[in-house]
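Q: What residues go here?
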């Protein structure tokens, strides 16, 4: 598989167009929801979530009474979140504010004591300039003394070395009321540090041409990410390896970072 600009765009968007399937696929992922909700409880104000998606995290914050402002690029994800909100009590709906926008560009003219970006959102920032623009967005919206907390995967050497010519069979799944044979294929470029994943769905009742859903991730090595944050004005207060406060070790799946602006690096002017 070769990854060009078109593939990058599709790898950024395709996985998030089927918002109902996204909800189904990650419905059991709860550790990070509790982590971010507990942070929000102690934030002392509204929370900004960059990459709000279908509200997997945001709804838990709102149910706890925390005002949440959510930003997402994908209208399909926001539409699904609005659909979910309609089923919530008025008190929950009242504390959720949604905006469609690119996290590299959006400016709301407000500051927050806590800015979060859960579940690998920053892995869709493929070049250094993309990351720096996203961090500038955080700077624009972070209140003095506020925290920026996000998580990305720890690059796993064995996962990045998977044979790009091999299709990995991963069983059968349900999607949209139909059963599919599910496959994946991986192609990692060690120069760009971008991995292109093909999620392959073969309908059991119509085993013809498979449906391929691309997903693209930029992997950040821990020391590299710490340096990028430092040179963009951030101090890493905590760097953990899970959502229970465990240390970042070689077996960790995620790197969870709690950051603030360094002394001498005031928030950007509104």
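A:
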């Amino acid at each position: 598989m070769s990854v060009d600009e078109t593939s990058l765009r599709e790898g950024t968007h395709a996985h998030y167009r089927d918002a109902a399937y996204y909800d189904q696929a990650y419905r059991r992922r709860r550790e990070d929801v509790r982590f971010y909700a507990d942070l929000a409880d102690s934030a002392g104000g509204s929370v900004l979530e960059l990459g709000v998606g279908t509200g997997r995290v945001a709804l838990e914050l709102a149910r706890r009474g925390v005002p949440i402002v959510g930003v997402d690029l994908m209208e399909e994800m926001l539409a699904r979140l609005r659909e979910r909100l309609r089923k919530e009590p008025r008190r929950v709906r009242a504390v959720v504010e949604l905006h469609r926008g690119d996290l590299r560009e959006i400016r709301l003219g407000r500051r927050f004591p806590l800015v979060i970006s859960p579940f690998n959102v920053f892995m869709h920032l493929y070049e250094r300039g993309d990351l720096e623009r996203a961090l500038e967005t955080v700077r624009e919206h972070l209140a003095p003394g506020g925290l920026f907390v996000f998580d990305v995967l720890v690059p796993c050497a064995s996962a990045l070395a998977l044979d790009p010519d091999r299709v990995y069979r991963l069983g059968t799944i349900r999607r949209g009321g139909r059963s599919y044979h599910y496959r994946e294929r991986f192609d990692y470029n060690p120069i760009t540090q971008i991995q292109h994943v093909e999620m392959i769905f073969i309908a059991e009742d119509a085993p013809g041409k498979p449906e391929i859903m691309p997903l693209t991730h930029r992997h950040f090595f821990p020391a590299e990410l710490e340096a990028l944050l430092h040179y963009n004005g951030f101090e890493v207060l905590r760097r953990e390896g899970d959502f229970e406060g465990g240390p970042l070790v070689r077996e960790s799946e995620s790197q969870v970072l709690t950051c603030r602006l360094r002394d001498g690096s005031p928030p950007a002017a509104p």
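A: Context that may help when evaluating the design: The first helix runs from residue 5 to 13. The chain has two domains: 5-153+221-261, 157-218.
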